[in-house]
Amino acid sequence: MFKEDQNLTWILRCVEKFPGACLRWIWGSKVFIQVYDPDYMKVILGRADPKADIYRFLTPWLGHGLFFLNGHKWFEHRRMLTPAFHYDILKPYVEIMADSVQVMLDKWEQISCQDSTLEIFHPVSLMMLDTIMKCAFSYQRQCPIGQGNSQSYLQAVSDLSNLMISRMKNVFLHNDIIYNLTSHGRRTNSACQIAHEHTGFVYSSVSAPLTTPELAMASQYRVVKLRKAQLQDKESIEKLRGKRCLDFLDILLFSRMEDGSSLSDKELRAEVDSFMFGGHDTPASGISWVFYALASHPDHQQRCREEIQSLLGDGSPSHGQLALQDGHSFRHHLHQMPYTTMCIKEALRLYPPVPCVCRELSSPVTFPDGRSLPRGITVVLHFLCPSPQPKSVAKSRGCLILPGLQWILPNTAMLSCPSLEDQVNCIGKQLAMNALKVTVALTLLRFELLPDPTRVPIPIQQLVLKSKNGIHLHLRKLNSATGDHEGV
Ligand code: HEM
Fold first, then answer.
1. Which of 222-231, 301-310, 440-449, 465-474 is least confident?
2. Which listed site, 182, 248, 425, 434, has its alpha carbon 20 to 30 Å from 170?
3. 218-264 tens-digit pLDDT
4. Which domain range does residue 314 map to?
């Protein structure tokens, strides 16, 4: 499955040779321990070790936001940002997501024809970016440069991921001064600039759409100031709440640290950049791989479709629109899709959107089998290729064993394995799950998904799990009245 990605090939070979963990030498006395045994991972995730130092390569882009903070500062930011993901805040997002998905599906309907395949990763990423901008930043799509700006942002994110991975692997590029003199360093700087222009544009579009990214960039702090002025006390918040839902940016601006101070502009920027990235790229990866998994398992796809049809109707304009217009019942239906939810989790287990995370051991650790590691070691936890285990062992470890759903191996992954799920500290987990369910439900009502055997995706480990050759699927439009294929 992973044969053409060198890094993955290397790790898979290690998994076969050294079940549990192995060592990767970087330079001098610096080594990374690659961990793929689920029991070892559980021990590490249960500790509060700081995030690894190599993440610092991402700070020119994402600043010092939640992703990279540690200790008390992390705790304070996390406490401030958690209300932005409260159940009530996420509620209205479901309809916004559904709107964005329908726009994407309308386009797919226009361009898909019987014999052609469609690369889905890119349009899904655009759709998720659009969704997160509307939900978290109250961005209005009418802005004239929205589409082009989003395209260049996605390209910049992809460049930054590639550059970061190659910098991690090359010790000569670790020094900042040397790196900035190289072509890689220059490309990183210009990609960072494009990504920052995009978030600047989001700030600006809140008050008045601007026509160029440069203008947007220049005025971002003015717009933040404007929002700050709107959100000075509880009364003004209530007034704003009457006009529109509070979004992520409102909550960020209104929240206070323990000493009563608010986030500085630099900290605010870091959180906005982090959420813009984490909020679109990981769910986009999840959705695309779930589509691929469902396309590869048509019987499971059909069972999901039948479950969704039993809740939302047959997907005909009247039924579909009714289900969507009544936001309350649509949200309610999201919690009533047990089989679809299981399939989503199974696909995320096989293709975890975040393939690995890194930690720096702050104290020695001893694993259940008695082996131990000293403090100061960097460990890389590989969710993508955990060591295979017999079903009985997986069950005793609390992994989700789904009857009839063992698509490959009963190994573990964060979102599908209850014992690990609680320990992976993703603040956007619920938002992501909603996005996955909305997208899968609405898509399966309108299309049958089929794989393209001539272009099997090749997973590659970037910051999120991508495919080297994209994800190509046949989309067969369903007849809304009967659920049958049209014209086939
Ligand atoms: C399928 C979708 C998602 C997956 C698989 C996922 C996975 C993860 C994982 C594994 C971590 C832990 C990283 C570490 O410990 O080093 C994490 C952290 C984080 N995620 Fe997600 N994520 C998803 C969606 C989202 C969304 C939608 C958002 C924001 C809107 C988000 C924002 C974050 C943030 C800010 C952190 C850092 C949290 C902290 O350290 O306190 N994620 N995510």
1. 222-231
2. 425
3. 444 555 566 666 666 666 666 666 666 678 888 888 777 777 788 88
4. 6-138+245-477
Q: Please tell me if the CB atom of residue 66 comes closer than 6 angstroms to any atom of ligand 1.
A: yes
Would you say the CB of residue 354 lies under 6 angstroms from ligand 1? yes
Task: Count the residues in the chain.
Answer: 488
Tell me how many domains the chain contains. Answer: 1
275 within ligand 1 shell (Cβ under 6 A):
yes
**Is residue 375 domain-resident?**
yes
- 437 CA to middle of ligand 1, Å? 17
Residue 182 maps to a domain: no
Does 199 fall in a domain?
Answer: no
Atom 14 in ligand 1: which residue has the minimum CA distance? 357
* pTM for the predicted model, two decimal places: 0.87
Q: Which of 121, 106, 180, 203 is nearest to 154 (CA)?
A: 121
Per residue in 121-136, pLDDT (tens digit) is 999 999 999 999 888 8
Cβ proximity of 410 and 38 under 8 Å? no
| Nearest-5° Cα angle at 65, 60 to 67 | 95
Does ligand 1 lie within 6 Å of residue 410's CB atom? no
pLDDT on residue 413: 40
Ligand 1 contact via 426 beta carbon (within 6 Å): yes
Cβ within 8 Å of residue 435, ≥6 positions away: 97, 128, 131, 283, 287
